[in-house]
Model the fold of this input.
Amino acid sequence: MSRRITWEDAACPIARAADVLGEPWTLLILRNATAGTTRFEDFRAQLGIADNVLTTRLAKLVDRGLLTKLPYRDGGRTRHEYRLTQAGSDALPVLHALGAWGDTHTSSENARGPMKLVHTRCGRLTRPGAKCDNCGKPLARDDLAWRGSWLGDGEIPLADPVG
Amino acid sequence: MSRRITWEDAACPIARAADVLGEPWTLLILRNATAGTTRFEDFRAQLGIADNVLTTRLAKLVDRGLLTKLPYRDGGRTRHEYRLTQAGSDALPVLHALGAWGDTHTSSENARGPMKLVHTRCGRLTRPGAKCDNCGKPLARDDLAWRGSWLGDGEIPLADPVG
DNA sequence: GACCTGGCTTGCTCATTGCAAGCTAGCTGA
DNA sequence: TCAGCTAGCTTGCAATGAGCAAGCCAGGTC
Done:
């Protein structure tokens, strides 16, 4: 027997979080969802993930409540998109903590400087946290954007959760 | 071919971090190392991880600089222990972010309340951050302890990095 | 000398991954 | 009308990875 262990019912919240977020691909799917990706095909193309793995990962994220599957109109037909829920958008501090660690303790030839967080209300860079480093106002998710690194040179607003 | 993808050289720091931290078991090994576990046998017993998987995970963590392998005296003989490096201890915000998410968005019959962070200098609970919520002093790693959840009722000081 | 203990390694089996191909509903184009 | 396309899956196959059990080895103790 060799079924992979689950920590879904662990006493430790870190273990329960790692049960979803600690699988290969999941953190990157969440990263891209936070940057606004919603569609199967776009996740596939952006990540280079295999279709069947993407299918199972998206299903698990929906099952655990981080994403929700919503119908949308594409021309005259109905398709589905995966949108962040509140729980999914609440994983943002995890992504920022990972990004900070990665910036400090890893390097890559392909990296073009660290990933930056922009407070669009004042237009300046800030660290993640309760308030903007620059203007001191509370950092609402709607006023945040990512810049640099894998994103190219553009500024990417953080996706709103549904609901 | 089916070799698992590596994000070691990705442009994105989140991806580079996820390359190490996003593997099954790795976050839990780091959690236990932060709580003071240093020896192969203790990791094995505490986590219930298979020996060969533990071997490969520890090796990768050493290779990526999160742990270091140090000799120590056991009776008259030399053994080895795995100690957190600075890079390994800098992953603490990742663990706290995961814990916070897990506390908020997952539940378990086995959970006995959330995991808490104690500022041992003032003896009160605080949230992770730059300063203690209670006494306002800067939160040094040496003054922090975990309490509750998977740890039982005791208070566990956070392991010091070597170096 | 027999046994123990910590830290691996090896061998086996099943699960998961990567890849490629196929499938389906509903569109577009001719 | 009918081939072709597209998004989103599903299926099949080969290779890697996980879980388990057993074995190995050095340096102890009994």
